[in-house]
Structures are given as C-alpha cells and as structure tokens.
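pinned: reference chain
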Amino acid sequence: MEVELSWNKNVVKKKKKIIIFDRRFKVVRKLAKGSFGQCFEAVDILENFKKVICKINDEQPMNELEGNVLKQLNDKGYKNFPKLLSIGVKYKRPYQILERFGQTLEFY
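pinned: its structure tokens
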C-alpha cells in the first residue's frame, strides 16, 4: 500500500491508495507480515462492509495449494477453518480473501 503526503491548510495528511480485490473487497489496513506473505484487514463493500481478511502470498503455487485445501475443508463442512471467499492474482500478486475469525493474535 502506498502512502502519499499532501498539504492542506498547513496540515500534512496521509492519502492511501485504494486497493479493491474481486470488485468487492476493499483493503483497510495492514495486519501482519510473515515468511510467506502479508495479511490485511478488508471489508466486503457488497455485504454491508463486513470485515474479512486479505492474504497476499509471495508465491502463486503456495497460494493455489493453500486455496485448494481450504476449499476442500469448506466443502466438507469443517467450521474451524476460515471460509475461502475469493482467490486469484491481482497487481501481479496471488491473493486470498478469507472469512475473519474474531480478533488478531496481537489482541491477545
């Protein structure tokens, strides 16, 4: 996410680039970065701004493998795994949109 600074009445404000995946999931803020990618909080603009997770993976094969496993678990009715809402490639980066399970680990 790029941040630009602009002047307005002698006050410096941050302008964030708007990032939307699958025409409905808008990235709100960065949550964490790990060895395989980054996680962002996002909202579903078509579902009353419901909070979701946007996971950006570093490698396409890992994204596809993980997505396939989650889809199989979702299809079999397992409730202890996040629901895979969307998967693809945008901005030349593989991504997943996942159901959010409460708070992040940093909260605890």
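why pinned: Residues 1-13 have pLDDT under 50 and may be disordered. Residues 60-75 form the longest helix (16 residues).
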